[in-house]
User: Fold these one by one.
Assistant:
Number 1:
Amino acid sequence: MTSVEVLCFIRNPFDHAASQYQQTIKTWGKTHSFDDYLSTYRFPKRLGEFLSFNSENGFSTKILNYSNHRSDVLSEVESWLAVPAGTLQAPKENQVNRSLTRSELELQRLCNFYISPEFSEAISDKLIHALPDQKSEIPAASEKAVRAFLERMHKQVALINPLLPEAERYVVEAADTVLPLVSSEFETEHFYFSTRQLMALSELFAEQQPGREKSWFGKSLDSLAKRWRQKAK
């Protein structure tokens, strides 16, 4: 019988929820708010289901909390694979697939809603690759949504943590730590772009100029415009 060994990275709830929400906007074309996403987040519960499945099928599972291993992911994976140190090489870029700023994220979310989810990767990829050193931001959320999320996470984590190695267990972030990161009425109503951000977006849109080879994004615009014209007839 073939043995199966699984390496699973988890992440502290709010830390993971903020990152995962960005992915839903950037690559999945979603349009929901961070408040709405927080109300549906249930990864600790899903981890329990995952571990139960693995146990029932005789799979060996090692859990590592990424929130504790941001700086040593490669060495941890090498250790688990039992390969010599240095076998896995880090990318040359210091920052890979950064999160978006609040303004970038809101632009992306609105484009998903008003134009098409097909544009998700085109806009965010342009910003990420052109400005890899741009400081990212935690999405804005209401105090009510954050407190409800943290309360729910405490209940889910209390059930799953006994199944995890003590050093790798979930830590539910404190409300006093999270709220200053997400609560800003001014920031939720005003959005700003630097000159560098505007230049990156302008380069993307400039591909629509006559005589220039169009990117996938440009071809998608043409396709969408054609569909609109057909519906208008």
Number 2:
Amino acid sequence: MRLALREVHGAWINGCNSAMQRVALTGSGRNLREENLANRNSQSVTIGRVADTQTKPTRCYLGLSKRQLALVLLFIAPILFSSNMLVARATHDLIPPVALAFWRWSVTLLLLMPFTAAALWRERAKVRREWLDLLVLGLLGMGICGAFVYIGADTTTATNIGLIYAASPILIVVIARLCYREPLGVTQALGVAVSLAGVVVIVCRGDLAILLKLNFVVGDLWVTVSMLAWAVYSILLRHRPTTLRPMVRFAAITAGGVLILLPFHIGEFLLGNPPAFDSTTIVSVLILAVVASFGAYQVYGIIQRVLGAGRTGLLMYLIPIYNGILAFILLGEELQFFHLLGAALVLPGIFLATRRTSD
């Protein structure tokens, strides 16, 4: 009997201990689950805070985010680019054209040196390998595009220069198709035809008799050649292989352009057309170098990096509009009917020719 009681008591004790262990384990399990849930909630709150911090736009200048700043610059950049055409026309009888181009790009090169001199020296072997490309690009972008516009400005208006130059994307599309087999859809081809018709209207000043008699204003022809050179420059810049970074390459191209312009500048000087280094010349060169060259290209780079190539393309439409308005206000140029007709053809033509299509 005693033995039986001992066994029952032992079983009861073991049962109690087992139950207590289960309760303890359950309690600890519950505690662990509660701790894990608390940790997960804490982590969620932390991640949420981090996400909030990341989604909030970073203020970079005057309380604006990078995107807001780029949008503001998108509407300021056309003024920077238009300054080249406005200064060209304003100083056409004051500063020799080749001298203006030479000193514009020489000062621009000086402005680039603090940012590129070390890299140019470090990558001089690459520059030597690409010297021919750099010289050709300098000839097109700084030589012909620079000097020819200033020569043309002697007999044509800043408004004409802006509208003719506005058609350069059309030629870029055509050259890319002919030389590099880039696709050209039906809609794009229509845009090319419409835009080129607009250029013809501007060059003929709305008078078909001028086209039939080939009695063009000489300045418009100079600007048209300059626009052709710009189109070829843009195509080569995109398609020619390079190992140089963009700003370093731009500095090397600028140096090539200055070297190309130097003998022509000396020739212009020896032929009795030296520049007068007065306040007008100095201010004009500084505006062209700081605003139309260095400033415009840097602002363009910021807009393209932040907004992308698509929205940056709006500059093509804004530049001739800004240029025409500023030429009217600052230079007293009158808007003629052929300007409006040309713009009505060139600008929609650019839109059609440069849009992405699947046809």
